[in-house]
Write a structure and sequence with these properties.
single chain, alpha/beta, Rossmann fold, five-stranded parallel β-sheet, binds adenosine-5'-diphosphate, binds magnesium ion
Length: 354
């Protein structure tokens, strides 16, 4: 029987629990077999085999031939007696946990996910001034990805923003926010995020939301990196809502973006502030685009703002009708035709043409 899944022959229950936990983090199902006889049926075709010390002796006794992709796993330094067995079976590596956990998650995730699709894109959204509409545009980008039938990952990197779940009107959706998400190692599988985190589903698409909470800590930089990379590898559109102050977690997202979008209301002061933001962002080597909320109170238009800030204009959008009331009522607009949705679609087009 070949399930295409990796297989473990492990008698040590504590070790087995740890392996199952790491496999879950990698989004990978790990089959267990009870003895060497059962393992023999999987020995040739399983993409990866994990053995504890006891199992290595059992396999040696059962005369299983050498194979690639078989590993000895242990929770401490293996005993000397096991070394001859590792040579006989051709075990490629001894994975000592917890130190080897990160490598194991990566290897299992590679198996579960297959090769990176190359389709994945990462976009960051920042406000040219406070209250510019960055979080609203980030949520609208998520909604646009969902409406287009694709897979999206909306990542809130602004712990003081009040929570992107609240922006979407999804604060009652159960599931972890950043304070409850504990990622082990430097890698997580997109599938593990989709099954753990709340989100929205459409006819075809899915938007998974990783929000900050009303209290508790924001994300750590390594966790941001792991989540963003997971979405990219899986070929998804990752949208990061970033604070205006470029914190270390924000930089972890920023350094992985294909495009950073500055949202700027068409006002003189917002323009001055956006210029400073643009300067900072460019110094980090980021490709920038502008979304302008126009016309401004004195009639300033998107093109004028873009010229003044010195960043290409991706979209100029009129105020979304009745947005403030909709947000307060927990009803983020799902229309695909309003100014906000049109601007979001322009951003996605620019992102996917990169
Ligand atoms: N496209 C828009 N049209 C009309 N009003 C908007 C728009 N975007 C944002 N707003 C208003 O601005 C407020 C602040 O938006 P928000 O996205 O939270 O700003 P930021 O994240 O940049 O601080 C919203 O609560 C809403 O009232
Ligand atoms: Mg915000």
């Amino acid at each position: 029987m070949d399930t295409g899944r990796p297989v473990a022959l492990v008698r040590d229950e504590v070790l087995l629990d740890e392996l199952l936990r790491l496999a879950a983090a990698a989004g990978c199902e790990l089959d267990r077999v009870p003895d060497a006889a059962a393992l023999r049926a999987r020995w040739k075709d399983a993409p990866l085999v994990l053995l504890d010390e006891w199992a290595a002796f059992e396999c040696g006794q059962a005369d299983l031939p050498r194979r690639a992709g078989a590993y000895l796993v242990s929770t401490g330094p293996p005993s000397e007696q096991v070394w001859p067995q590792t040579l006989v079976l051709g075990l490629e590596r001894v994975v000592v946990l917890p130190a080897g956990g990160e490598w194991l998650i990566g290897t299992l995730a590679d198996l579960a996910e297959g090769p990176p699709s190359g389709e994945g894109r990462v976009v960051a959204v920042l406000g040219g001034r406070g209250g510019a509409g960055a979080s609203v545009l980030a949520a609208a980008l998520g909604q646009a990805v969902l409406s287009s039938g694709r897979q999206g990952l909306l990542v809130d990197c602004d712990p003081l923003g009040g929570g992107l779940d609240l922006t979407l009107g999804d604060e009652s959706h159960e599931g972890p926010r950043w304070p409850e998400l504990h990622l082990s190692g430097g890698r997580v599988a997109a599938s593990a995020l989709h099954s753990a985190l709340p989100g929205r589903s459409g006819k075809h698409g899915r938007l998974t939301v990783l929000s900050c909470d009303r209290d508790g800590p924001g994300p750590e930089p390594d966790a941001v990196a792991a989540v963003v990379e997971a979405g990219r590898r899986a070929g998804e559109t990752v949208i990061c809502d970033l604070p205006r102050h470029l914190t270390v977690p924000a930089l972890a997202a920023l350094s992985r973006t294909d495009l950073a979008v500055l949202v700027v209301p068409a006002e003189v002061r917002a323009c001055a502030s956006a210029k400073r933001m643009a300067h900072q962002l460019t110094s980090h080597g980021v490709t920038l685009g502008l979304v302008v909320r126009a016309p401004g109170p004195t009639g300033l238009r998107g093109k004028e703002i873009a010229e003044s800030v010195g960043v290409p204009l991706l979209a100029s959008m009129r105020p979304e009708p009745r947005l403030a009331t909709a947000l307060d009522n927990g009803r983020f607009p799902t229309t695909t035709r309003g100014p906000l949705a049109r601007a979001a679609n322009s951003v996605l087009t620019a992102l996917h043409n990169r």
